[in-house]
Design brief:
Elements: E1 6-12, H1 19-27, E2 34-40, H2 47-53, E3 57-60, H3 64-73, E4 79-83, E5 87-88, H4 93-103, E6 108-115, H5 120-135, E7 147-151, H6 152-158, H7 169-178, E8 183-193, H8 196-201, H9 203-220, H10 238-254
Parallel strand pairs: 1-2, 1-4, 2-3, 6-8
Antiparallel strand pairs: 4-7, 5-8, 6-7
Helix pairs in contact: 5-10
Length: 256
């Protein structure tokens, strides 16, 4: 099997709690032809110290788009894998990802993902997101920023991530890349993702925020200004969560 060199780029800001889990999952991969680049936005905890303990290269970060671009700037790989600090890779992730990526001649791709959660509502939300990404990939490519892989060639050709955007810079990146290359979804492996954002902002509010952002992006092209607040408060009412579950289940049935 061909083993191209992969640059794994991780934007961080005070990620001492989550980063060790991700870096350990990378370290345990059978595929060893990679480098880790942490683009740190001036963390005031032990994030940088932890990254260095795993022999990661440290570069200046900022907002996620800036961190990803700076990481790519100092990368040595022909393949770029962008990860958020709160994801975990399963066993043999890199090997399976590269094999499928090359097999289908992709130049940009995302992955299926599952929540690190025991709550039914979280699994339904993630299942719906996976279904939407799969069903729209040919007409409206989408990819969550917590896990995107691309060739350095296409990254350079489109100029990287648009740092002027307030939201959805990941979807914008994939949309532009897919116009010039082949986009796909890696299906032989998956990514495990923290649900901290769901817990922090509230499930219904987060769904609402992303829905409105996508509507705005569809109508206007780019979310280049602050159209939504980040903080909507926690949403923990059990009755309301139950109603959301039923609503999502009805939507999922439409795709069968």
């Amino acid at each position: 099997m061909n083993e191209p060199f992969i640059s794994i780029i991780i934007p961080t800001l005070n990620e001492e709690k989550f980063l060790p889990k991700l870096l350990n999952s990378i370290k345990e991969q059978n595929y060893k032809n990679y480098e880790i680049i942490v683009a740190d936005a001036n963390s005031n905890d032990k994030t940088v110290e932890i990254a260095k303990s795993f022999d990661a290269k440290i570069v200046q970060g900022g907002k996620p788009a800036t961190g990803r671009n700076n990481g790519a700037k100092f990368s040595a790989g022909d393949y770029l894998l962008f990860l958020d600090a709160d994801v975990i890779l399963p066993k043999n992730f890199l090997e399976k990802a590269i094999y499928e990526f090359d097999y289908y001649y992709y130049e940009v791709a995302t992955f299926r993902f599952e929540p690190i959660s025991n709550l039914k509502i979280d699994h339904l939300i993630f299942k719906l997101a996976n279904v939407l990404i799969e069903r729209t990939k040919k007409i409206y490519p989408l990819a969550p920023g917590f896990c995107i892989i691309c060739t350095k060639r296409i990254f350079r050709r489109i100029g990287g991530f648009d740092e002027s955007l307030f939201l959805a810079e990941d979807h914008d990146f994939v949309k532009r890349a897919s116009k010039l290359s082949k986009f796909g979804i890696i299906k032989d492996t998956k990514v495990f993702v923290s649900v901290r954002r769901l817990e922090k902002e509230g499930r219904i509010n987060l769904i609402r925020k992303y829905f409105l952002a996508e509507v705005y992006r569809t109508l206007k092209g780019k979310v280049d200004r602050e159209i939504l607040e980040y903080e909507f408060g926690n949403f923990q009412n059990g009755k309301n969560i139950s109603s959301i579950e039923k609503f999502i289940e009805r939507i999922l049935k439409l795709f069968k």
